[in-house]
Amino acid sequence: MTLHGKVVFMTNADDNSGETLIKRLADEGAHFILNSVSDGKDIQESLAYCQSQGVKTTVVNVDLSKSSEVKTMLERVAPQIGTVDVFIHNTNVVIPTSVETCDEETFLKVMDRNTKSAFICTKEVGKQMAEKESGRIIYISSIHAEKPTGSSFVYSVSRGALKLLARESALYLGRYGVNVNAIELGPIDGDDEKFTSHISKLYDDYQYKVPSTRLGNDDDLADLVLYLASDHARYINGADIRLDGGFLLHYMDHKMKKPTVRSESHPS
């Protein structure tokens, strides 16, 4: 098993992708520190699966944008489960807003959850990893680090900041054998509703803007996360890996691979 005995710290176990990620990594022998705002209530199936696999899990519920809480939590759980080997930041808060109407409170809320938490956690787990001279840090970000949403400017800002955080962290922590990479996740089912916009048509017929016309899913994400968490990815550091099926390459709507609608012929 590629992650046998490794401790994985995940920032949002309650996320839709959480169940798939936990199962995939548990199958590879990982143990878990799972941050859950539901205190584990929403991830009972995942916890049961980990138990059936003999995987150790510790469920926590802390404000990851507060350094004192993260530091205290990591110190508390280390004797029970060990120090962190793989850190997965999968917190993904989207609040519709525009530059013209966004209030300061909303801006700071999104930035705290999506970006400041990544900085705080990277700083704290980075110390543990640097001491061991080994570790993997994976930010699950978005193509909207590159492309405006047209519906939530602060979300795009938070993803763009995460891109540079990954690069700066990779430059520093790479000297201690720690790899830091970002996954820029593209469209999945439901994103057309999440990013509804009155100024952008990016998500109109969005599944057909993927050349294969197949949207990504949690399994695609889990495959890449597992690879980046493993020793197979030892030479990948400071990378932004776009996982979007080619979605951002689209530029001509009339060339989309849409199903052919056949008209019914009626006998005269």
From TrEMBL:
One of its GO terms (molecular function) is oxidoreductase activity. InterPro entries: NAD(P)-bd_dom_sf, SDR_fam. Keywords: Oxidoreductase. It comes from the Bacteria. Belongs to the short-chain dehydrogenases/reductases (SDR) family. This is 3-oxoacyl-ACP reductase. It comes from Pullulanibacillus pueri.
